[in-house]
């Protein structure tokens, strides 16, 4: 069994859910994120958050995967002050909804003054609500941004054991672990981290407080990043216990602190019943025959599309 604790499923297709279930992924965590272009009204942000706590949770369940999410104002849009102020008014209401396991992904992009202001405000919200935090570390000037993120978190007074510093690499991992935080790694082709590099890090650091995710989104990414990394690690001699920790148990431990994510959610799941509706809507289109009580069909390897 695997958990993918960072997957932007709202950007993915039904095929991804089917392939993930077939590969052994039992649960995903969907962080609120940058959708590729700026949102200009707080209403569009509210609709987006409503989708990831509602429809997407339902859609995943129709393919046998349990879906959780994190809510937050991403760092890019923190630079639109009017939008940011509106989102901050809504966040406490979403943070208390069923299936929300953390505040995130939040942090720095260009490390501006506005990003810093709203990063701090959201850390205070997480502290008040006693929720874990998922931190996005910047793509540019990563080392300085990662160190700065942890400095601010410590200044706010959050327990590092409640915080996942995500998108680590070889340059940042030692400091993240030494300061007591969880170290997330996104297996994202050509940019954040490849899985052969990840295997070498597992050989060096072991599995304590390390978490593997795919960060799959609308970019060139792989929704099977977690199971593929697990398989490569096992074939490369990484102990099975280490693989289980980084691809399953560690994510459950830290995000389970929200009280919203429990192993029994997927060990004793409700049956798949694709006749079910969400707000009057179905995942079935055009009179398609529903799947009931069995594993969702796997269509990815089929040659014929009917």
TrEMBL record:
It holds the Pfam family TatD_DNase. It comes from the Bacteria. The keyword Hydrolase applies. Its EC number is 3.1.21.-. GO terms for molecular function: hydrolase activity. InterPro entries: Metal_Hydrolase, TatD-like, UCP005295. It is an enzyme of class 3 (hydrolase). Keywords: Hydrolase, Metal-binding. Belongs to the metallo-dependent hydrolases superfamily. This is Tat-linked quality control protein TatD.
């Amino acid at each position: 069994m695997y958990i993918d604790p960072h997957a932007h499923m709202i950007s993915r297709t039904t095929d991804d859910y089917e392939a993930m279930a077939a590969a052994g992924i039992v649960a995903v965590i969907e962080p609120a994120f940058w959708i590729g272009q700026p949102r200009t009204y707080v209403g569009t942000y509210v609709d987006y958050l409503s989708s990831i706590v509602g429809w997407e949770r339902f859609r995943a369940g129709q393919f046998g995967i349990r879906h959780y999410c994190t809510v937050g104002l991403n760092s890019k849009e923190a630079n639109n002050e009017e939008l940011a102020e509106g989102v901050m008014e809504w966040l406490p209401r979403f943070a208390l909804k069923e299936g929300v396991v953390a505040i995130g992904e939040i942090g720095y992009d260009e490390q501006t003054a506005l990003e810093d202001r709203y990063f701090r405000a959201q850390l205070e919200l997480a502290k008040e609500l006693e929720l874990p935090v998922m931190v996005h570390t910047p793509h540019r000037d990563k080392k300085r941004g990662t160190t700065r993120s942890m400095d601010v978190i410590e200044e706010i007074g959050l327990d590092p054991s409640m915080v996942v510093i995500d998108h680590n690499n070889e340059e940042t991992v030692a400091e993240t672990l030494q300061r007591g935080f969880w170290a997330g790694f996104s297996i994202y082709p050509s940019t954040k981290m490849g899985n052969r590099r990840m295997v070498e890090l597992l050989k060096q650091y072991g599995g304590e407080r390390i978490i593997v995710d795919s960060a799959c989104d609308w970019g060139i990414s792989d929704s099977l990043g977690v199971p593929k990394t697990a398989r490569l690690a096992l074939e490369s001699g990484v102990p099975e216990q280490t693989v289980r920790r980084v691809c399953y148990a560690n994510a459950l431990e830290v995000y389970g602190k929200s009280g919203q994510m429990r192993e029994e959610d997927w060990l004793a799941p409700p049956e798949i019943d694709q006749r079910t509706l969400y707000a009057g809507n179905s995942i079935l289109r055009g009179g398609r025959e529903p799947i009931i009580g069995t594993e969702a069909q796997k269509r990815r390897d089929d040659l014929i599309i009917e």
